[in-house]
Design goal:
Layout: H1 13-20, H2 25-32, H3 35-54, H4 58-75, H5 89-109, H6 123-136, H7 143-152, H8 155-164, H9 172-179, H10 185-198, H11 208-219, H12 223-229, H13 232-246, H14 251-278, H15 287-314, H16 318-342
Helix pairs in contact: 1-4, 3-4, 3-5, 4-5, 4-13, 6-15, 6-16, 7-14, 9-10, 9-13, 10-15, 13-16, 14-15, 14-16
């Protein structure tokens, strides 16, 4: 029997979404059929995104990304036998579609059309152009990694950084699984090879998500610490990563976005490894980053050659979409690292005599 209880819309969008977890299968079916409720929920989403992006209200922005994170957590979670009849997708996808459109729409307004057009139309030249785009961007060589961590990063700085990295690293294997859907040939094989590396090449002890969990454990970044120290800007990066992977229509942007992620990882992870060892921390905890210095360099090269090249060869319009994804990654990465660096102690001033 359907009682069709309606979660309250008066306590914020995240509260409404959390209330869905307490509804039984029949109640959820009734709610899915209640288009009055779904219309009110959609209106609430539009009002919230207008406050966040139209008026620049940070509290509204935080609510948008808390709600979107709840939807994405559900997408990346395993089903339980107790809930095989619990259909939440219609409502969750209503919310995700509206919030993701606002989030990505905002990011696109930050990109100049001049930066994504006029690019080369053949694979090798396009990749060189794309790499130059990365190198010229502030995120390409960010001071958080290459000045702060490299020179004076503390153990606490490492812990704070790694807590933020939970927005992507623990689910990167699943993101690669999503990206393979519908692809074929060498393009799919390249993503699959990357995925197999994430799976430790069949060795359960070397699965990358498990290695990352060891990093967090070694540095003392437990769930409570992550929750209390997590930055909005890190959450935005995580939500955009998930949105691009989950929606087939965003595939070309995802290729640029995650290509930049792979390309920047080795130089960034080298700074993490050096800081880790400078503090003589547990070697078992740095296997993840140490491994990725070499692996991600190979992944980036393969990604450019076997994914980017064929897409551009098949349709030159892909170049613009890939560049948009790359710049979304660079812009949001710079936002996140800027915000994180503000939370870390300033570098000590160099005495004048030391410069002689």
């Amino acid at each position: 029997m359907r009682t069709n209880p309606k979660p309250s819309l008066d306590h914020g969008l995240p509260s409404t979404l959390r209330a869905l977890a307490d509804l039984g299968a029949a109640d959820l079916d009734g709610l899915n059929d209640d288009y009055s409720f779904r219309g009110d929920l959609a209106a609430r989403c539009r009002t919230l995104t207008e406050r966040a992006y139209g008026r620049g209200e940070r509290a509204a922005l935080e609510e948008v990304h808390t709600a979107l994170a709840l939807v994405h957590d559900a997408e990346f979670s395993a089903a339980t036998l107790d809930e095989v009849d619990h259909e939440r997708q219609p409502i969750l996808r209503d919310v995700a579609a509206l919030l993701e459109r606002a989030v990505l729409g905002h990011e696109l307004t930050r990109i100049s059309e001049d930066d994504v057009t006029g690019h080369p139309t053949t694979g090798p030249e396009y990749v060189r152009w794309l790499k130059a785009l990365v190198s010229e961007h502030p995120a390409g060589w960010h001071p958080l990694y290459h000045s702060h961590l490299a020179q004076a990063g503390t153990r606490e700085d490492l812990r704070l950084l790694l807590a933020q990295e939970t927005s992507l690293d623990p689910r990167f294997d699943d993101i690669l699984a999503f990206l393979q859907i519908g692809r074929s040939g060498g393009e799919k094989l390249e993503i699959a090879a990357n995925y197999w590396d994430e799976m430790g090449n069949g060795d359960p002890t070397l699965v990358h998500s498990a290695l990352f969990a060891r990093v967090l454990d070694s540095i003392g970044a437990d769930p409570a610490y992550i929750r209390d120290s997590f930055l909005l800007e890190a959450g935005i990066c995580g939500n955009i990563s998930a949105a691009l992977a989950l929606s087939r229509r965003h595939y070309y942007k995802a290729v640029g976005y995650f290509g930049v992620t792979e390309y920047l990882a080795p130089r960034r992870f080298r700074c993490v490894v050096d800081a880790w060892r400078r503090h003589d921390l547990d070697e078992d905890g740095i296997v993840y980053h140490d491994l990725h210095i070499g692996v991600d360099a190979q992944h980036a090269a393969g990604w450019f050659k076997n994914v980017v090249h064929p897409l551009l060869h098949a349709d030159q319009r892909a170049g613009r979409e890939i560049a948009l994804g790359a710049l979304i990654r660079l812009n949001t990465s710079a936002d996140y690292l800027d915000a994180l660096l503000e939370r870390m102690p300033a570098l000590p001033a160099v005495p004048a005599t030391a410069a002689v």
